[in-house]
């Protein structure tokens, strides 16, 4: 996977799982969740924790991160496409 670090939007179902991804002016339906985990961040650099998912959206496989809106600075809060499968 290659690093991207671009803002995106994600819709969640009632259980809090991603069901669609809005990225680069397109909407992708999540067809499979490969992994979900919580990353601690590099505490020595002051990075906040974040929730992470590896999602399959048809032929697109992405890792998305959600930073809590209360912990990190406002410029990084919300959803990000962190990595995309080459």
| Coarse structural class | mainly beta
Shape: globular
Instruction: Indicate the percent of residues in helices.
Output: under 10%
How many strand segments?
A: 8
Descriptive labels:
86 residues; mainly beta; five-stranded antiparallel β-sheet; three-stranded antiparallel β-sheet; 59% strand
Q: What is this structure's SSE topology?
A:
Blueprint: E1 2-7, E2 9-12, E3 18-23, E4 26-29, E5 32-39, E6 50-57, E7 60-67, E8 78-84
Antiparallel strand pairs: 1-8, 2-3, 3-4, 5-6, 6-7, 7-8
Overview of this protein structure:
The protein has 86 residues and is an all-beta fold. The chain has one domain (2-84). It is 0% helix and 59% strand. The chain is built from no helices and 8 strands. It has strands spanning 2-7, 9-12, 18-23, 26-29, 32-39, 50-57, 60-67, 78-84. A 5-stranded antiparallel β-sheet has the order 1-8-7-6-5, with no helix packed on it. A 3-stranded antiparallel β-sheet has the order 2-3-4, with no helix packed on it. The model has no long low-confidence stretch (mean pLDDT 90).
Question: What's the short story on this structure?
Answer:
The protein has one domain. It is 0% helix and 59% strand. It has no helices and 8 strands.
């Amino acid at each position: 996977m290659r690093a991207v670090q671009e803002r995106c939007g994600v819709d969640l179902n009632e259980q809090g799982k991603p069901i669609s991804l809005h990225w680069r002016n397109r909407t992708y339906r999540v067809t499979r969740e490969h992994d979900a985990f919580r990353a601690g961040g590099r505490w020595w650099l002051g990075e906040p924790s974040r929730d992470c998912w590896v999602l399959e959206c048809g032929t697109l496989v992405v890792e998305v991160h959600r930073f809590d809106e209360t912990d990190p600075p406002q410029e990084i809060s919300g959803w990000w496409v962190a990595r995309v499968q080459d």
